Amino acid sequence: MTADTVSSPIPYSDAALEFRREIRDWLARNAPEDLRGVRAVPRMPSPELKPHLDRWASTLAEAGLMCVAWPREYGGRGLSGVEVAIMNEEFDRAGVPRLTRGMGESLVGPAIITHATEEQKQRLLPPIISGEHDYCQGFSEPGAGSDLAGLRTRGVVDGTELVINGQKVWTSGYYKANMLFCLVRTDPEAPPHKGISYVLLPIERDGRSNGVEFRPITRINGAALFAETFLTDARAPLDNVIGGLNQGWRVAMTTLGSERGGSATTQHVAFERQFWRLVEKVRERGLLGDVRVREQLAWAYSRIQVIRANGLGLTAELAAGRSGGGLANGSTSKIRWSEFQRAMTEMAMDLLGPDALVTGPDYQLDEWQEEFLVTRSHTIWGGTAEVQRNIVAERALGLPKEPRPAKGVTS
């Protein structure tokens, strides 16, 4: 099958097919052999793998293949959603990772492009593309997780700076970041959704801590990919407030729409790879003839195809020049994939039987044990499944808001 005859229910334009050929040809010439088969990059790569990834990231940046969805005038390629989906498919086909600049590219960049001043765009976007600025997220707080409007971290204007004090939690990517994008309350007298500012905070200042302390949180699988974050007189220039003081809620919605939607157009690719690995494991155990096992596998495969169809539908909307549903679409996508992954790993553990229970201080978790433990949090981070359903009900379907008890009233 050639790039011209890729089977798809999406009517790709001639330009899209030409772009597929361009990416496929470029990968044929440049894909690094030392990364063949490394489609999914660990969040904390091994010391042996990291240099290879760094070289590949530099190659991609030099070829203009970082931050590709950003407008050309800000260093991107101005790719449409369809073209980004094609690019992801071709990297997967070549068996090499499609590296990005992480949260800086997918979450912070869109917020800057949409809401920042021209001066801020020219100053803050290039360091993301180059990798000079690596961001971690400071939204959730101990008393304000999915309900971000309840945040209490304070930001007080002091001359040309904002002085920030408070606490954040579930800060992912802290271990490699040098910038924190966070929400702070800059007008405590305003209503909950008002008086919030979206701030880009340097983690260090003049080579020293900028009042930012990370305390790692060990996850159930033993890894510490998240942290509590304590901000004590941390300082950010007012020029790093995106969208203006007290206007951060609308900026945050741009970020959350990106986070919750994720890579909806191509998520099924990774899920299918995982599914077939499970099928192979079941085959090794001689269980494929069991009707109950076949029913469970059929259930999982059908759900993956639903996710695929949803992604294709989003791609079709993008191809037609529509936005793809915005925040509500991001919420439905988040619900769908996060609940599927939890159920899929529960099913895998059931199929593995007693072996799935083997663990201990010196025991290395296998793929399925690791996935089972990690996916416990997937319906929580990025907005809980319950909150996502409220968003869909209230913002997409126009249903009445969920009744909430008055302040000071407990059930």
TrEMBL record:
Pfam families: Acyl-CoA_dh_1 (PF00441), Acyl-CoA_dh_M (PF02770), Acyl-CoA_dh_N (PF02771). The keyword Flavoprotein applies. InterPro entries: Acyl-CoA_Oxase/DH_mid-dom, Acyl-CoA_Oxase/DH_mid-dom_sf, AcylCo_DH-like_C, AcylCo_DH/oxidase_C, AcylCoA_DH/ox_N, AcylCoA_DH/ox_N_sf, AcylCoA_DH/oxidase_NM_dom_sf, Mycobact_Acyl-CoA_DH. One of its GO terms (cellular component) is plasma membrane. One of its GO terms (molecular function) is flavin adenine dinucleotide binding. Residues 16-132 form the Acyl-CoA dehydrogenase/oxidase N-terminal domain. Residues 246-396 form the Acyl-CoA dehydrogenase/oxidase C-terminal domain. The keyword Flavoprotein applies. It comes from the Bacteria. Its cofactor is FAD. Residues 136-219 form the Acyl-CoA oxidase/dehydrogenase middle domain. Keywords: FAD, Flavoprotein, Oxidoreductase. Belongs to the acyl-CoA dehydrogenase family. This is Acyl-CoA dehydrogenase.
